[in-house]
Design brief:
This protein has 300 residues and is an alpha/beta fold. It has 14 helices and seven strands. The longest helix is centred in the middle third of the chain and has 18 residues, at 156-173.
């Protein structure tokens, strides 16, 4: 069973429901581009406090690994307790942007993430002061805002006010801000030219198989994921024709790749198959994300 990771190998003889539970558990698979983004985040964590802190914007399609990378980074900086003061230390704070660019809602999300009580009806300025006070006490060194493209869901004035709130936190606390979102996130930040100039942009492109090197990289990704599939025999999904099938079905989105391989493995486990084969793909009737969207259009 050399085709399996140590953890997957240890589960090969457990009941099927335990195998399926493991298959549905999120696992981190590192790859070159993810490491480059993690390195950029580490560089920001080491940046000295200045009046004009640098920021980072991570852009990629939905389901292409942005949030997974950010959560992996969070694991490097867990909440700790200062032994001298018995206060919580939270080096990195991560929240999702509210569905509309509302300053008050943003502060509420931050206070909730910080497990800090607040009065719902108090003014945004009071919540702001509370957020700043708590972040200082927690010795926070980075603020991450996921789904930041939601900024464009409001009026121009709402967008400006929201971005000003973000800039104000960065200036007051002298910490970097990291934004993450789809392509619209880049356009959202451009509303405030001063803030936009502070953002370095990291792109998470879709995986491609248009060159030999790109194909090898995609095959390595598939091989890494396959090591976690609790099946007694190797499926060799990183080889053709399976590689081409997976690329077509995933459309180059890493989240789709994980989900496809997970579904294939779970189907095989439930049906006592020792490996994944052509019949497994046919039985599941998988279709690419764009085709799923076309199916939904039939409801209109």
């Amino acid at each position: 069973m050399e085709h399996l990771s140590d953890k997957a190998r240890s589960l090969i003889n457990v009941p099927n429901d335990e195998k399926i539970f493991y298959m549905n558990t999120d696992r981190w698979i590192g790859y070159p581009r993810s490491q480059e983004v993690l390195n950029s985040l580490e560089d920001l964590m080491c940046y000295p406090k200045t009046d004009r802190m640098p920021n980072l914007l991570i852009i990629g399609d939905s389901n292409n690994g942005k949030t997974k990378i950010l959560k992996q980074f969070l694991k490097r900086y867990p909440v700790d307790i200062d032994e001298d003061t018995a206060l919580n230390i939270q080096p990195v704070v991560m929240v999702s942007a509210p569905s509309k660019p509302d300053e008050n809602s943003f502060y509420i999300r931050l206070l909730q993430e910080l497990c800090t009580p607040y009065v719902k009806n108090e003014s945004a300025s009071v919540k702001r002061e509370r957020v700043i006070r708590v972040l200082k006490k927690r010795k926070t060194r980075m603020l991450i805002i996921d789904e930041i493209q939601h900024v464009i869901a409001g009026s121009y004035n709402s967008q400006k006010n929201f971005l000003n709130a973000i800039k104000d936190l960065s200036n007051t606390l002298q910490i970097p801000i990291v934004g993450s979102g789809i392509e619209d996130a880049f356009h959202a930040i451009q509303v405030d030219p001063q803030l936009a100039n502070r953002f370095q942009v990291e792109i998470l492109p879709r995986w491609k198989v248009n060159t030999p090197d790109n194909t090898k990289n995609f095959a390595r990704l598939i091989a890494s994921i396959e090591k976690g599939l609790v099946l007694p025999e190797a499926s060799h999904l990183y080889k053709k024709p399976y590689l081409d099938k997976i690329y077509y079905l995933s459309e180059g989105l890493i989240g789709e790749v994980f989900q496809i391989l997970r579904q294939l493995a779970i189907f095989s486990i439930k049906n006592d198959q020792t490996s994944i084969n052509e019949e497994t793909f046919e039985a599941l009737g998988l279709i690419p994300p764009s085709s799923r969207r076309k199916l939904l259009s039939q409801l209109r």
